[in-house]
Structures are given as structure tokens and as C-alpha cells.
Amino acid sequence: MTIKSHFTAPNLKPLTKLFALSLYACALTLPHQSMGADPVKKTALPVITKPVVQSSDDRIIKAIGTSRAVRSVTLYSKIDGDIAEIVPREEQMVAAQDVIIKLDNRNASLSARLAETQLKAAEIALRRAQQLRKNNVRSSANVEDAQIGVEKARIELLQAKEVLKDHTLRAPFAGFVGIAKVEVGDRITTDQPIITLDDRSTLIIEFGVAENYLSRLKKDMAITAQSANYPPKTIKGVIERIDSRVDPVSRTVLVRAAFANPLGDLLPGMSFAITLKLPGDDFLAVPELALQWRDGKSYVWRIDGDIAKRVEVLLVRRLNNNVLVQGDLKAGDRVVVEGVQRLRDGRSVQSIDAEGS
Asked: N or C: lower Cβ tally within 10 Å for the chain?
């Protein structure tokens, strides 16, 4: 009696094919991996690099300021009187002590002449008293009275000359006169403004600088200014003064700069765009693309020969398309700007210079 089994042998063909494919894949991989070889250095990875450069942490301060003349006054008369003559025209340049305004001085001139006559009479009386004293006709008291009379007449003459002088208004310094606020024939008083005088050979511009730049500000630093309401013209100047305190509200310090204006063509009251370069410390600069971040730390890939090395750096600040950093770098080192995604420490690379580097 023959017993037939209800179980059939499993089909081994699919398993055999899968095993064969696995062996074939291993065979393809083995020739590319030599025993003991470092897979990191197996092939030079092409990367694009740029050099590390030396750069300064300079800051450019820009501000808007209003100019004023280095010396500027409004002239007043010392006495009340009638305007007899206005000598200069508006915007005319005058020298120091030039006559600006003349008041009617006829009465003052007569008073000065009268004082001169009285002095002469007093001097004659003194000489006569002295002569009589020598002849014992008069006492010494008469001579003393005559001497007092002479001194009094001299003082009165000086006073009369001062009053006469006050009828002429002169320029205290050289400069440009403005439009007169009076006309010939006007009656003026001592509290009435007459005309302005500006010495604009030098313009003064004041502006504020943030307190965090205070340590960089120095007297005599070079500065430039350009008027926005005038044909393009840049003028050069220097920092003249730095205020002794910081404004607690704006947190700025007031800076005063002086600008030469020899032609006098720039006027007080004009607005200017100020540019001030504050020099800073020297740092190394790397391209922004070279800076990488991982675990809260910044680093770059430096190329040593043909090997990539990860170098941690401290970011100082961004400057245009570069980043100022501190770290184990020197000017001339090359850092990777493209191809960083596949880099690992010690990876063999083929450095390709970026265009323009």
C-alpha cells in the first residue's frame, strides 16, 4: 500500500534568485573598497573656495545737521538816533571796523567841539593861576581849583567824543552783512535790531552720535558734508568739539564739526548730510557663504593643502557680503563657499577658486 503525502515541497526558485542578486551586488561593491582604506579620503570632492582677507571694523556714521556761521551777530545801536546812512548793501563782504550805519551826529559833533573849547579855557585858567601863584597874588588853593577844572573839562571831552563815536556803527569782525531791518531816516532805539553780520569763512555743523560709538570719537577726526539743496558739492572738515555729557533721552552725544568755506558760497542755516568714518579694530573677513552653524556654534571649512578642516570662529559682525570673525585663521587661508553640504573633517577636496578671488 502506497501512502501519498498531502504536503508539497516548497518552491525555492524565488529565494535562489534573491540570494544571487545579493551576491552580485556585493561583488560590485568589493572592488571599490580596499581593506583598511579611509572612505572619507577616497575621492577628492570638488569645492569652491575664497580667501580670508584682513578687514577693519570701521563704522560709517551718517547724520543730518544744520550749519551756522563760525561767528554771527545782530548789530544794535548804543544810542537812540536817526539813520543818516546805510553804507553796505545786503550780502556785501565787509572788513573788521568798516562802517555799517551812520546816525545823524550833528548835535553830538557840536557837543564835542564845545567840550574841546571848554578844555582850552580851563587850561588857560590853570596857567594864569599858576603864574599868579608865583607872584604871590593868588593862593595855592586857586591853583588846585584850576587843576580840577582842567581835569573835569578833559573828562567831558572824552564823554563827548564817545557819544560822537557811538553815532557810527562798525563791523566787529569781517563777514557778510544781511538785509538791513531799517531805512535811512528811521528813528531807532537801543533795543531795535539793525542788521546781521556773519563770518561764514568757516561753517559749524552740530549733530548727534550714538553713545556706543563714543570711545571711537576723537577731536580733529576728518569728516565730510554735502548739501542736499545745493549743486553737489562735498566739503571737508574736522571734529572741533565733543560734548562732555550724553543726552539721557536720545542716548547721543553732541558733536561739533568745522568746515572751511573760503568762497562763502555755502550759507548758515543750510542742511547738510554728514558722513563720519570711525576707525575700528582689525579682524579677519570671510564670505557670508563660508559661515556655517551647528549646535549653536559658527564655523568655516578651511582648506589645508587638499584636506578640509572645520574651524570654529566667533562672529563679530556682518560687513557688506563678508563676515568679520575671530578664530584659528589667517589672511590668505582659503575657505569653502560652495560644496559644504558633503564636507566632513579630514575630507579630501579639490579646491576651485571662485571668480574674482
From this structure: N
H-only helix segments in 72-230: 106-134, 140-165
Residue entry with cell 570701521 = 58
- The yes or no reply on domain 63-70+199-278 and CATH 3.40.50.300 is no
Residue with cell 573677513: 285
CA distances from 148 to 145, 203, 327 (A): 5, 54, 91
- Which 3 state secondary structure label does DSSP give 14? helix
Q: What's the whole-model pTM score? A: 0.68
One of 2.30.40.10, 3.40.710.10, 1.10.15.40, 2.40.420.20 is the CATH number of 39-57+282-353, namely: 2.40.420.20
The reported pLDDT for the residue numbered 131 is 85
Q: At residue 340, does pLDDT exceed 60?
A: yes
Q: Are 75 and 147 in contact (CB under 8 A)?
A: no
Cell matching residue 168? 557810527
Residue 223 dihedral angles phi and psi, to the nearest 5°? -150, 150
Three cell numbers at 311? 574651524
Q: Are 177 and 90 in contact (CB under 8 A)?
A: yes
Where along the chain do its domains lie?
39-57+282-353, 63-70+199-278, 105-166
What pLDDT does 138 receive? 62
Contact predicate 240/204, CB 8 Å: yes
